[in-house]
Amino acid sequence: MGFSEYLFVIAFFGVPGVLGGWLAHTRGKNPLVWGLLSAPFPFFVLIIWFQKPTAEIPGYFRKCPSCGGVYPWKLNACKYCGVETEQK
Ligand SMILES: [Zn+2]
């Protein structure tokens, strides 16, 4: 196998693998398992994309103390009930 084919294989399996693993990490799931699933089957990237974490993931998702909803870390208030984010 030549160098360019080798690069193609890395891109073909590596990109969805890394993406799936990273998304799993931001959602509190096992990045290794999801990375290995996503590499040969890129639709797992879509599945993990739509997964909501069940707990707070510092830097990525907050859990609302009022309604228990999980919303993106960068928002200043809960997107479900509007309670303001407590600044830690
Ligand atoms: Zn809320």
TrEMBL record:
Keyword Transmembrane helix: yes
Transmembrane segments: 6-25, 32-50
Keyword terms of this UniProt record: Membrane, Transmembrane, Transmembrane helix
Protein name: Zinc ribbon domain-containing protein
Keyword Transmembrane helix attached: yes
